[in-house]
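Working notes for the structural subgroup meeting. M.R. asked for a predicted model of this chain before we commit to crystallization trials. I am recording the input and output together here so anyone reviewing the notebook later can reproduce the run.

Input as submitted:
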Amino acid sequence: MQKWARFAILGAMLVTAYLLVLAWQKDYGHNTNTAVQQSSVAVASNDVSADLPNSQNTAATDVPQASNTAASQTNNTAATSDQKLITVQTDLYRLWINPKGGDIVRLELLNHDSSKNSNQPFVMLESDKDRTYVAQSGLIGANGPDSNASGRPSFEIEKTNYSLADAKTVNAKNGQAEKVISIPMVYKTANGVEIVKTFTFTQGQYPINVDYKVINRSQQNWQGQFFGQIKRDDTIDPGKSSQGIFQLGTYLGGAWGTPDEHYNKLKFTDFNDEKLNVQAKGGWVAVVQHYFVSAWIPGTLKLSQANGEPYTADLQSRKSPDHMNIIGFTSPTITVPAGTAMEVDATFYSGPKVQSELKDLAVGLNQTVDYGWLWPIAKLLFLGLETFHKLVGNWGWSIILLTVVVKLILWPLSAKSYRSMAKMRVIAPEMQRMKEEFGEDRMRFSQEMMALYKREGVNPLSGCLPMFLQMPIFLALYWVLMESVELRHAPWLGWIQDLSAMDPWFILPLIMGATMFGQQMLNPQPADPMQAKVFRLMPIIFTVFMLFFPAGLVLYWIVNNSITILQQWFIGQSVKKAREKKEAS
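Returned structure, recorded in token form:
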């Protein structure tokens, strides 16, 4: 029985290691660091019209077909091709808008560095010779200016630079005053239709409101559809980070959700074969990468003086002829009678995957912080970390406090297991005597062993329990550290300046190995020499595993092992004294 207990404990440890490696291989892949050009903004010179809905060309289009395929009735004004980009800077980001089409062609996150030792902002969106990742929006259909064969519309703009100095104070829906920057862009047709595209930015918030207002002063009805989409190439995830011989980076690809199906992944390779084509009210589409996400959330439609109502959008994905990955939405066909006006809008988010902010934008969008199949445990762990961080202001100390709380919660179960293991250590001499006495008679030896276990109240399999209890918690914390942007580049103390990265000096893994060895010494030693040798190697094997894992994860294991050593020592002393007292009486 004891032999099987040993194998069970060894199996639990190996399963933990295997699941960690499996999770590592699933989440991480090859990466080569690419330098990000920060000094200037370059926009791809190729015409992006082919990426947009085209009501006249139904063949081989790389964007969703407008539902109204009648020929365009819009009479375009002349478009200038040498317009400068519009620059917008808030307290959270700096971005650039192309007046031709009104696309966001570059976005830099000012509060997130491109790397740990860089003062350059993290680049989310960009369009240059090295990388294409942009947010596009417009009006398509019979009269939509983005469906014209002559190309995207060129908007008239008031100026090319905006900052918080241009912000105006308004009252939000919650009654609080907010500072917002509004950027109107105007496009007029010869037959009297005026289209105003407005970007609205709010201080301290990442979501951007994109609003279209169509004022129909012509003699005919106006028809069109609003679309929003994200276009990205197959370049690597810039959010990935190097971890020694490992290259880190989680899921990179598309995602979408509806009120009925909250969160669904869609790999870039499946944008055609398993393309998205879903109608939903209250849905969203996104491109997800490590720590960050870009998403479109369809908004409301307001005709004339009526109140705005959410519209049912078509969520779609596709591959462009030049192999770009495109995921987006289109609104239903909108009819604006002559002499009236309409407004339609959507929200665009591009920034860190902060769960508290994403959950308020759309149902399921916060699940882009993907904690894997152990997400219930992971969410509880993150909630605990967040609570402690509010108290101590440091994620490293928060991990230590969380470990203490977890150990206290599991204390009754683990104490029972450690007490049984301590009893096995105390009765080890008796077991050795019985082996020498009944070694040749295996059946008698087994009977005597079972009688001894029963008499002493020992469960030889109880030693597996602590490992099985810790395994899901350890794996869930791994995903928390890998997916929570709050811990990206978070320092602890001294040489540990990034808890989500490996210990650069390998000090924590070595300490972890030492604590694991110390814990092993308090356990009853295997009688079988081969088993004993394997168990002596386990601290070395796990130390090697932990060399390249996040420092925060290794810190958790060190604290957990240290508390376990103290717990086992006190329990061992208690069992030993009880045994001596029993023998004396």
